[in-house]
């Protein structure tokens, strides 16, 4: 039994699925050497694990950097879409609702009134149109809206089904 611990060596595979040519030789003095591998001769098992963990961390950092770039691109695209939506909505409020709107009086509420009727499923009252236009529900606003609705009836764009109930002309 004249062998010291430094001379006793053991050869093993580092993973069960690893081929024979990538065996790791570990001696009991704590030194590790990979046969046919990349690691330096004389490195310890801890060094091997540190190298592997460092390589994994570097790879993950690279993936994070790439994902951060892609995230910035997606967020910029979302900002551009929000600006586009805001612009299109603002322009749509200025455009006439239909071809008959060329006969509309010059007031920004008229196209919006027609848009409210286009979205409605039935007749609307002046109060309903005020709510659709986001006007404060004060008597003066309701009466002003009623006057606009009556003017649209005279132009043949709306019809008054019964007193106070207005609908699109069929």
From TrEMBL:
Locate the compositionally biased regions of type Basic and acidic residues: 7-22
Give the residues annotated as coiled coil: 57-84
Region Disordered, as annotated, extends over 1-22
Task: Print the keywords alphabetically.
Answer: Coiled coil
Supply the name of the protein.
Uncharacterized protein
- Species the sequence originates in: Streptomyces chlorus
């Amino acid at each position: 039994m004249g062998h010291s611990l430094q001379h006793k060596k053991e050869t093993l595979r580092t993973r069960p699925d690893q081929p024979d040519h990538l065996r790791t030789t570990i001696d009991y003095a704590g030194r590790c050497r990979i046969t046919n591998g990349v690691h330096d001769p004389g490195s310890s098992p801890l060094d091997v694990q540190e190298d592997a963990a460092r390589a994994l961390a570097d790879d993950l950092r690279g993936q994070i950097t790439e994902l951060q770039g892609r995230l910035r691109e997606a967020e910029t695209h979302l900002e551009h879409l929000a600006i586009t939506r805001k612009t299109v909505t603002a322009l749509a409020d200025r455009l006439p609702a239909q071809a008959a709107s060329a006969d509309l009086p010059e007031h920004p509420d008229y196209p919006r009134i027609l848009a409210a009727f286009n979205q409605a499923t039935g007749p609307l009252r002046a109060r309903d149109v005020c709510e659709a236009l986001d006007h404060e529900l004060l008597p003066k606003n309701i009466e002003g809206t009623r006057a606009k609705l009556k003017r649209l009836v005279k132009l043949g764009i709306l019809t008054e089904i019964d007193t106070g109930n207005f609908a699109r002309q069929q």
